[in-house]
Amino acid sequence: MAILESFIDKLGSVESFDRLNDVIVGLRDVLETEHVIYHWVNSTGEHCAALTYSEEWTTRYLTQDYARLDPVVQACLRQFNPVDWKRLDWSGRSVRAFVDEAVDAGVGNQGYSIPIRGPSGQFALFTVSSRDDDAAWSRFTEARARELILISHFINQKALELERGSDTLKVVSLSPRETDALTLLALGHSRAQAAESLSISEHTLRVYIEGARMKLAAMNTTHAVARALNQGLLIV
């Protein structure tokens, strides 16, 4: 977690979006990946990005509205869990043409994207990409997945602070059992597995999950996990 601790220290001193972009560039260099990208859309539809893509590719992506066919964006809009690019469906002529253009622009052939849901309808996406082969990329994601999830939410929290001028999120306090239950779900455990790990019944587990959901004002369990992660209530 040395990278995470160092990154949090640097993020704490960020006072502008330009400076946030500098920190993103530094993170790319430390992780030794091809690119690091943070992009978000707030409740009014305004966009903000801190990224290491070339200006040419960024402009091309936006002007061509590639988000409408980008399998990564479409997958992240539908789910809360991280998305490994190589597990997506890249078939289809238009998608293949988009991929070829992205690779030519230096985006990389591997990627790991983390969708983030914030307050008031905010949606953000944190991505790292690489030119690694499959074996090297699998080793990277297995070793760094938890760290990347935490980093993504710390970045999103900083972006929210910069937009508002201060951190005004209501502090939510979860009980130890509520925290344990959501943490296990965030790690990918099923409800049965989580209940077994906590040595409780699935009925009791549901009580803890429902309590956390209500405190977080979440629509469902997945939303509760996402909100708890975004507010730094879980360590995964």
List the helices and strands and how they pair.
Elements: H1 2-12, H2 17-31, E1 35-41, E2 47-51, H3 55-63, H4 71-78, E3 83-84, H5 93-104, E4 110-117, E5 123-130, H6 134-164, H7 176-186, H8 191-198, H9 202-216, H10 221-230
Antiparallel strand pairs: 1-2, 1-5, 3-4, 4-5
Radius of gyration: 18 Å
Question: What's the count of strands?
Answer: 5
Order of helices and strands: HHEEHHEHEEHHHHH
Unreliable runs, pLDDT <50, ≥5 residues? none
Helix content: 55-70%
| CATH evolutionary superfamily of the largest domain | Transcription factor LuxR-like, autoinducer-binding domain
Identify the CATH architecture of the largest domain.
2-Layer Sandwich
Hey, roughly how much beta strand do the residues contain?
Answer: 5-15%
Largest sheet: 5 strands, antiparallel
Report on the structure:
The protein has helices spanning 2-12, 17-31, 55-63, 71-78, 93-104, 134-164, 176-186, 191-198, 202-216, 221-230, and strands spanning 35-41, 47-51, 83-84, 110-117, 123-130. It contains ten helices and five strands. Helix 1 runs antiparallel to helix 2, helix 1 (2-12) packs parallel to helix 6 and helix 8 packs across helix 9. A five-stranded antiparallel β-sheet has the order 2-1-5-4-3. The protein is globular and about 55 Å long. By secondary structure, it is of the alpha+beta class.
